[in-house]
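User: quick one, fold this
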Amino acid sequence: MTAAEDATYLSAFRARLGLPGIIDVHTHFMPDQVMRKVWAYFDTVGPLTGRTWPITYRDDAEVRLKTLRDFGVRAFTALVYPHKPDMAAWLNEWTADFAAGTPDCLHTATFFPEPQAAGYVGEAVERGARVFKAHVQVGGYHPGDPLLDPVWGLLEDARVPIVIHCGSGPAPGTHTGPEPIAGVLRRFPRLRLIIAHMGTPEYSEFLDLAGDYAEVRLDTTMVWTDFSEADAPFPAHEHGRLRAFADRILFGSDFPNIPHSYGHSIEALERLELGDDWLRQVCYHNAATLFGIE
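Assistant:
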């Protein structure tokens, strides 16, 4: 679909479901120099992607903001993530400034296992961060690193959600998969983790974690799209659990770094035929409840 066709389709989708908008918990806004490096990585078919991955919405930030708003996205995130030490704190400064000037963006922050992490995470929470991003795959760290213990404890007590890429898709990392993060949850069972990409490709194992821990949620990012189904299809036998966890699945897109149109992310959910009530919860109400969006 073109952007105009997307906007028409998404407007009809919202009208049919009676939704005031869409809440997207998995979008990326970053400093320009960082975003350019991310796009360059995708362009060179980096080892963590492993396949051609065109960037559909390669525009400057103002254009991308207008695009999301034209699609009816009422709230979204600015997911940033460090790949080395001494990077997270300045990313958090940038996201704080971005959120201050972008009221529909949920104030986002991040962290890395380093001695100063608890300090800047605590500061971000005090400044109003509403969601954190952790990327075990890109960061190349074990989520159970002792340097992160005070971070997990702080975020558990503050009840701030964390969108975490800990599944092994699109390519396994040293510390990806369900067991490393399961170890963290055994010690911090009240963490509000949002498992990115439904835990691709370990869908069943991460649904098991959601069954074990009441605060674990999952986002739909790229799952069930044609691109994802070609490489890591969601198991049909798990569709029943999608209904069971209807109140803990949140819509995510990976905008702007997606190899397909934005509307296809919603179309992929509609193709599941899980009903309008399920779509209402996933595309708006679950995130609205979690983040206190009126």
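User: anything notable?
Assistant: Residues 276-291 form the longest helix (16 residues).
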